[in-house]
Amino acid sequence: MASIVILNVSMPRLNAAQPKSIRLTRSDAVPSADAAARQLGIPVDRSWSVLSWTNSTLLDKELEPKPELRRRAADDPVIGPRLGGYRRNYYRRGLEKTVPYGYVIVDQRTGAVLMARRMARAEESGARLTEAQVRPKADAFVHSREFPGAPSPQFEDARPNVMRSRTDWTIRYRIKTNFPIGNVVPYLHVYFAGDRFAGWALIEEYADGSVFRGDDTGSGVASLLMRLALNFVLLVVLLVIFLRKYHAGEVGVGTGSILFGLIILLCLAVDVIMGPSATEGNTMGSLDAVSTTAAQMAFKFLLYDVPLAVVVFFAWSVGESYTRERWGEWLASFDAILRRDPLNATVGRSVFNGVLFSPAIAAAAFVAGLIPLAMGLAHPSMGVGTDVVVQLGGPILLLLFAAIDAVIFPITSLFFMSWTNRFRLLWIGMLAEIAVGVISSVCVVPIAPLLP
Question: Which one of 19, 168, 313, 415 is separated from 56 by 20 to 30 angstroms, measured CA to CA?
Fold first, then answer.
């Protein structure tokens, strides 16, 4: 009960940057996006379609350090629709993914189409219109409808992109707002490819023309490298201990093999579900979007998922052996499940304890996250959990990630604590497992910059 109180007190401090008032799921956004894409002439049925989440990096940088302002921004008619939405990209099969057929962005609250653009390849031919010819068409389109996030657009300039076989145009309309967003200026862009209308988009720029620079100084890459290094270090340490105990006849491989297979299946399910969205923005030379997704997920599976499953195999086999020496009762409920007797008091007690302790784990993570907030070292961000749901694959993916964590970290804990307790150094095992959890971002809280 104390943990639940802590959660309710701390959560408002951490959720300022979460997408507000989501009423559409990922699948709900698809029909609206496909309909808008067809109106622009995008061949939806022939494309490789990928749904993800998009946001404004400029507005996020300006608003995330100011939680109350961020909350107010969600209700502003100009800023609110620009803070995020479902993005559906339509890629050309068999051609590099750098120039897709186009994209559509749908408001997660109302289902309105926020942006829609068809993109033409450089070799496509078209007309060479002048500004005097294209400007009336853009003005007529702008005055023909209301644009969420761009009320009362005012023409600012027209910018040509002269190509070998056509001239493309971007007609820029400035959007006035009294909302305090610093140096950021909101625009509405209307596009033409040759003489063909190519859609519109909500764009933000800095008033002084400066280039966006993120706050991430490589911490994301460093975290990934640390995870990979951790996996292989654990793999080597566990392999040495396992081989010694296996040749002595002290460990078996039956249960460890089951856990290895479970992690492999869960990781495969995760990779299949999140692959298309997780590889958005990534390219691999001339590979098309389908091949890029397959290649990058294959690298992830071979370099991260399989070593992780092998770590679980070794950690269980070695940890079980050490645990039975002094703490055999720790394995009682697991043994009962393996013997197909899950409906007994031992298993029930373990499950009940797990349910009761889960709010305490969440509360501990949130309290830890409040420390850098109170010190001014971090600010609320969208968060891994929300990102998984709206960006990568939906709630089922979040459950799969949780299931993987629920297997890996209790088993590595079993190894570290039983191994170190054997030498009367249990506190070192606890610190080691905390380090593993920190590096692997277990129970990560929605703050930024990344502060393990």
Answer: 168
What pLDDT, in 10s, does the model give residues 260-270?
Answer: 999 999 999 99
CA distance 140 to 127: 20
Count CA within 13 A, CB hemisphere, residue 109. Answer: 14
Nearest to 59 by CA among 147, 180, 156, 150: 180
If we measure between CA atoms, which residue out of 308, 317, 309, 311 comes closest to residue 254?
A: 317
d(CA 105, CA 85) in angstroms, rounded, equals 6
Query: Over the stretch 320-351, which tens digit does the pLDDT of each residue have?
Result: 999 988 888 888 888 898 888 889 999 999 99
Distance CA 234, CA 452 (A): 20
pLDDT tens track for 267-286: 999 999 999 999 998 888 88
Q: Is 256 left (phi over 0), alpha (psi -120 to 50) or beta?
A: alpha
Measured CA to CA in angstroms, residue 368 lies from 6, 64, 94, 210, 444 at distances of 12, 19, 48, 36, 10
Of 374, 357, 338, 352, the C-alpha closest to 443 is 357
Confidence (pTM)? 0.88
339: exposed, middle or buried (C-beta count within 10 Å: 0-12, 13-18, 19+)?
A: exposed
Do residues 47 and 82 lie in contact, with contact meaning Cβ atoms separated by under 8 Å?
no
